[in-house]
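Exercise 7. Given the encoded structure of a 464-residue chain, write a plausible sequence.
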């Protein structure tokens, strides 16, 4: 392998691989392309040249048509299979219109006679360098937009998100209770933290409680505390979440999972700002702001008598609904750049973006797990990739083989619960039934994963 390197700026360097069994012609190409910001790798052997393409991920490959071992046409096919965005120029000493048409149909960007005309090759290189500069400029603009459209820890410039940011700003200074609703993974906790950080009690504690993870018999103790001897195992007095958050904000995540008894006591806290530890007759005053969050339809739960109507109206004095990722699809490129930038820094890897074909695939995926799923997918992809850009092979198998929409067996549009169950099933199948890894990738607790499996009779099947 021979390398000619005239690189002044690695971000703007054009990588070229030239493959030709005529070493004199290789030297000619390397000399011809010798200029600032161009790195040329050469190989007289087709297999070694293909290995170079995989290792260096060039923007341009120049290939001789007739070589021993692997022909230029076969090499073209393998390069296109590896990355169709790579520009490939085929060179031949015996031009024919039939082979030229075949080369173009198979993905070549040009088909030139040997010895190659210096002006024509230089024109192609100049065009690619210009495209590279434009891409770098676009990346700089994207990073500037990221800075402009970050609100607290949230990113978005779509109409639904800008409206969400506006409501949070207006409500933060005045709220006592807020209800945040939205599907799993839409960023309810981030919205709650933004409300707290912009409120007058921002310097006070922010305490989050996942109500779905509370054991029913201990839920009241976790929320309101207990005194020594209140129950078996209560060896000392213990403050609950509301006392811990006194002077600040409590986030009750998945509030729809609270038991009727806990709902009744929560209503008293909201009405009187008073709590009573389990086992104690005395009442304690607390000064807390309460944010409740849920992905459930609380109005439907009220009709089913599973959620108190008076508690709902008390919580929903201010109601913020977060959009799904499908409802804010225009934010997807910005979110991708945000997560890739974050994970590249976290893992110390030179990942700078995402390939066009990977972007296209992610734009067609329905994202039932919303922003959290996107974050987990890109975090995993940044960890797996060896290149400067996340590509299709770095994405989970279940995304690479997902249909763009989910249809129920009867041919009607599936409900959200059906989509959720189908998605969990598909992820588990792709991970050979590994529930721990599936929960991690989906961004849900293992307890929730088991509930979904139990509700859909998958737990005792081959999938669960």
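Solution.
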């Amino acid at each position: 392998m021979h390398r000619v390197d005239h690189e002044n700026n690695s971000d703007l360097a054009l990588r070229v691989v030239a493959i030709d069994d005529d070493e004199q012609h290789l030297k000619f190409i390397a000399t011809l392309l010798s200029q600032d910001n161009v790195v040329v790798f050469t190989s007289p052997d087709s297999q070694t040249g293909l290995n170079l393409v995989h290792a260096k991920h060039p923007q341009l490959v120049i290939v001789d048509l007739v070589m021993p071992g692997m022909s230029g046409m076969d090499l073209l096919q393998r390069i296109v299979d590896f990355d169709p965005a790579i520009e490939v120029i085929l060179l031949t000493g015996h031009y024919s219109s039939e082979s030229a048409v075949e080369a173009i149909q198979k993905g070549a960007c040009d088909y030139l006679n040997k010895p190659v005309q210096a002006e024509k090759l230089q024109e192609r290189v100049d065009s690619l360098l210009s495209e590279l500069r434009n891409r770098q400029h676009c990346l700089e603009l994207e990073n500037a937009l990221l800075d402009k459209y970050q609100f607290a820890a949230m990113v978005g410039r779509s109409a639904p998100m800008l409206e969400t940011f506006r409501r949070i700003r207006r409500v933060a200074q005045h709220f006592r209770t807020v209800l945040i609703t939205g599907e799993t993974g839409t960023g309810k906790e981030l919205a709650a933290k933004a409300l707290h950080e912009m409120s007058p009690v921002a310097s006070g504690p922010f305490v989050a409680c996942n109500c779905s993870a509370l054991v029913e018999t201990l839920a009241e103790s976790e929320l309101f505390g207990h005194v020594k001897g209140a129950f078996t195992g209560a060896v000392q007095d213990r403050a609950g979440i509301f006392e811990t958050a006194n002077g600040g904000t409590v986030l009750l995540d998945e509030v729809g999972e609270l038991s009727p008894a806990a709902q009744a006591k929560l209503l008293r806290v909201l009405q009187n700002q008073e709590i009573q530890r389990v086992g104690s007759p005395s009442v304690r005053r607390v000064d807390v702001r309460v944010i409740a969050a849920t992905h459930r339809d609380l109005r439907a739960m009220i009709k089913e008598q599973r959620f108190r109507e008076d508690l709902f109206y008390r919580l929903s004095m201010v109601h913020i609904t977060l959009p799904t990722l499908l409802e804010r699809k225009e934010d997807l490129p910005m979110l991708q750049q945000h997560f890739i930038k974050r994970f590249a820094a976290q893992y110390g890897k030179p990942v700078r973006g995402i390939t066009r074909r990977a972007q296209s695939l992610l734009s067609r995926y329905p994202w039932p797990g919303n922003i959290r799923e996107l974050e987990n997918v890109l975090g995993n992809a940044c960890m797996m990739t060896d290149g400067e850009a996340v590509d299709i092979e770095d994405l989970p198998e279940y995304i690479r083989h997902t249909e763009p929409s989910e249809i129920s067996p009867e041919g009607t549009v599936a409900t959200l619960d059906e989509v959720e169950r189908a998605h969990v099933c598909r992820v588990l199948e792709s991970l050979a039934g590994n529930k721990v890894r599936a929960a991690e990738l989906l961004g849900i607790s293992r307890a929730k994963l088991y509930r979904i499996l139990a509700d859909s009779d998958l737990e005792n099947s081959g999938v669960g």
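Remark. Residues 9 and 157 are 32 Å apart (CA to CA). Students should compare their own answers with the one above.
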